[in-house]
């Protein structure tokens, strides 16, 4: 599989992302990845949840006014899902999400996954990817099941190399009043060290029409 990966294309995507994105502390902050998803959904959208686990996202979608159709994919056959093999999916989706999934995968598997997501999205579709923020000092390393870390610019670069455009990256943090005060106090140090207080990042991207 590694021999089939176009590493030069990945390098170009990473270079493009690093030139276009600001410092981590300049990225906007969102309360949660679910808020991001609900903000892009429209009535009638069909959404595919990759790495759906116990389908908690389905419960959340049922609580918002927008009416959507939810389908899930996961390799865990001990849980009930619509798909267990991503290669067998034979339809297109309006929105595809992978929430805190890619950090549990190898880089090569993530590259293949992004290319497959691009194939499964409608031309007007959108993908939402969340993962731990590598600029946070400890978030990624606190889970022994994590395999591959992704800085925000590396994540954007991989999406570019898979054929996505109009990529937006946000930091995930439910900001309380005390958090805002601490951020104001420590922001000069954070910028100096190129670290961040937000534990997660989320990317939103659209497929390039060929």
Summarize the structure.
The protein is α/β, with parallel strands linked by helices and 210 residues long. It is built from six helices and seven strands; from the N terminus they run αβαβαββαβαβαβ.
3D architecture notes:
This protein has 210 residues and is an alpha/beta fold. The protein has a single domain (2-205), classed as Rossmann fold (3-Layer(aba) Sandwich), CATH 3.40.50. Helix content is 33%, strand content 23%. It contains six helices and seven strands. It has helices spanning 7-20, 33-40, 56-61, 107-120, 152-161, 177-193, and strands at 29-30, 46-50, 69-73, 93-99, 121-132, 164-172, 200-207. The chain has a seven-stranded mixed sheet. Strand 4 (93-99), helix 4 and strand 5 form a beta-alpha-beta unit. It is globular, with a radius of gyration of 17 Å. The chain starts with 6 loop residues before the first helix and ends with a strand. The mean pLDDT is 90.
How many H/I helices?
A: 6
**How would the global form be characterised?**
globular
CATH superfamily: Vaccinia Virus protein VP39
| Name of the top-level CATH class | Alpha Beta
State mean pLDDT (0 to 100 scale). Answer: 90
Secondary-structure topology with pairs:
Layout: H1 7-20, E1 29-30, H2 33-40, E2 46-50, H3 56-61, E3 69-73, E4 93-99, H4 107-120, E5 121-132, H5 152-161, E6 164-172, H6 177-193, E7 200-207
Parallel strand pairs: 1-6, 2-3, 2-4, 4-5
Antiparallel strand pairs: 5-7, 6-7
Helix pairs in contact: 1-5
What attributes characterize this protein structure?
single chain, 210 residues, alpha/beta, Rossmann fold, 7-stranded mixed beta sheet, 23% strand, globular
């Amino acid at each position: 599989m590694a021999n089939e990966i176009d590493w030069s294309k990945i390098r170009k995507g990473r270079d493009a992302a690093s030139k276009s994105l600001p410092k981590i502390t300049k990225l906007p902050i969102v309360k949660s990845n679910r808020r991001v998803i609900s903000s892009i959904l429209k009535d009638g959208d069909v959404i595919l949840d990759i790495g759906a686990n116990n389908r908690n996202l389905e419960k959340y979608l049922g609580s918002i006014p927008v009416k959507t159709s939810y389908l899930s994919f996961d390799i865990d056959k001990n849980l009930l899902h619509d798909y267990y093999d991503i290669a067998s999916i034979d339809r297109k989706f309006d929105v595809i999400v992978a929430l805190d999934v890619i950090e549990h995968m190898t880089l090569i598997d993530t590259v293949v996954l992004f290319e497959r997501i691009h194939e499964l999205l409608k031309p007007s579709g959108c993908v939402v990817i969340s993962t731990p923020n590598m600029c946070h000092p400890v978030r990624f390393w606190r889970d022994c099941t994590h395999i591959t870390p992704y800085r925000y610019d590396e994540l954007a670069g991989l999406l570019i190399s898979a054929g996505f455009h109009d990529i937006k990256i946000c930091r995930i943090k439910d900001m309380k009043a005390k958090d805002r005060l601490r951020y104001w106090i420590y922001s000069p140090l954070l910028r100096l060290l190129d670290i961040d207080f937000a534990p997660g990042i989320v990317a939103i991207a659209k497929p390039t029409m060929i």
